[in-house]
Amino acid sequence: VQLQASGGGLVQAGGSLTLSCAASERTFSNKIMGWLRQAPGKEREFVVAMDNRPRYSDSVKGRFTISRDKAKNTVYLQMNSLKPEDTAVYYCAADNDWSMITTRPRYWGQGTQVTVSS
User: Fold this and answer.
1) Of 4, 53, 77, 116, which residue is least crowded by CB atoms under 10 Å?
2) Is the four-CA dihedral 59, 65, 68, 72 of positive or negative sign?
């Protein structure tokens, strides 16, 4: 079982990036999927996740949009109006439980670095 994240990079403040996360198994179509991030020297934090509808952290609400293509077992994160404080390693994650996806998801992908320059 694998979650493969891609799409990170370097962008200037105010710019946009799109992250993708592809799941290796169709069983993930029934799970909650989303993203967490960890900045250097900081705790890992929940960003967004969705099953049939999304839930966003207050820090990204209105700027980030999560979407899902169940046929492709893929979840996307469109990040707009990026800020330097969005700089972090972003991790794709999945779980069956909302209380776990926001803290300690059962399934993790490798991280992808997002760097926002000021």
Assistant:
1) 53
2) negative
Q: What is the CA radius of gyration of the chain?
A: 13
Residue 1's pLDDT band, with cuts at 50, 70 and 90, is low
Give how far the C-alpha of residue 3 lies from the chain's centroid of Cα atoms, to the nearest Å.
11
User: Token pair of 53, please?
Assistant: 């509808």
61-112: pLDDT as tens digits: 999 999 999 888 899 999 999 999 999 999 999 999 999 999 999 999 989 9
Q: Are the CB atoms for 36 and 47 separated by under 8 Å?
A: yes
How many Å apart are CA 85 and CA 68, to the nearest integer?
25
